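Need the bound structure for zinc ion, inputs here:
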Amino acid sequence: MHKCPRQEHGNWSPDEEFEVVCPGCGRSMEFFKDEEKRRCRNCGQILTNPILQDAG
Ligand SMILES: [Zn+2]
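Answer from helper R.:
Posting the output first, comments after.
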């Protein structure tokens, strides 16, 4: 089981990872700023990176 010791929220840098809440199951997962999409390990839903959606 993966658990991050630091659970600080609200002060992330755009160069690092951040948390996105899965709309399917409500579980938060880590996203890297240059990562286009990720799959929720809990429910399998594909999440798109909100900070990349504007690009392109
Ligand atoms: Zn999910």
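Comments: DSSP finds no helices and four strands in the chain. The chain has a mean pLDDT of 80.
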